[in-house]
């Protein structure tokens, strides 16, 4: 009878240790996720600040160049210049949109967390 009680105590201790280890593993993964969330937030904020700066100064520069060229031309040349500038700006906007999309798709957020969870799943 005492051997059955000892076996039950060992089984309970083993289950308790396994549960403890499982919670420790989950806690570690949550800490990793939290760290990656902070890194991602910092990266996004930095990108937004630089993007806003680039847009602001780019618009100022483009407007000044456009107005200067149009001012220097006469008659029909002004209309042609306006059409050419418009086409150029549309092309530049399209290229910019493609580059932004490519950059957004090139990074995979939470890659380390997903990789660690995949390793954990393979272990179990």
Q: Describe it for me?
A:
The chain has 124 residues and is mostly helical. It has one domain. The chain has 3 helices and no strands. The longest helix has 71 residues. The radius of gyration is 30 Å and the shape is rod-shaped.
Which secondary structure elements does this structure contain, and how are they paired or packed?
Blueprint: H1 2-72, H2 76-106, H3 111-123
Question: Which sheet architecture does the biggest sheet show?
Answer: none
Beta-strand percentage range: under 5%
Domain module tally: 1
**Which class best fits the helix and strand makeup?**
mainly alpha
How many helices?
3
Q: For the residues shown, what is the average pLDDT?
A: 86
The overall strand count is: 0
Poorly predicted regions are none
Gyration radius over CA: 30 Å
Would you list the SSEs in sequence order as H and E?
A: HHH
């Amino acid at each position: 009878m005492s051997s059955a009680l000892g076996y039950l105590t060992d089984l309970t201790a083993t289950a308790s240790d396994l549960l403890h280890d499982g919670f420790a593993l989950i806690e570690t993964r949550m800490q990793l996720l939290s760290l990656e969330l902070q890194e991602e937030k910092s990266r996004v904020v930095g990108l937004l600040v630089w993007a806003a700066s680039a847009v602001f100064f780019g618009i100022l520069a483009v407007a000044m160049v456009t107005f200067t060229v149009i001012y220097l031309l006469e008659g029909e040349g002004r209309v042609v210049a306006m059409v050419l500038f418009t086409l150029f700006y549309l092309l530049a906007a399209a290229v910019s949109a493609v580059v932004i999309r490519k950059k957004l798709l090139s990074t995979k957020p939470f890659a380390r967390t997903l990789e660690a969870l995949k390793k954990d799943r393979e272990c179990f």
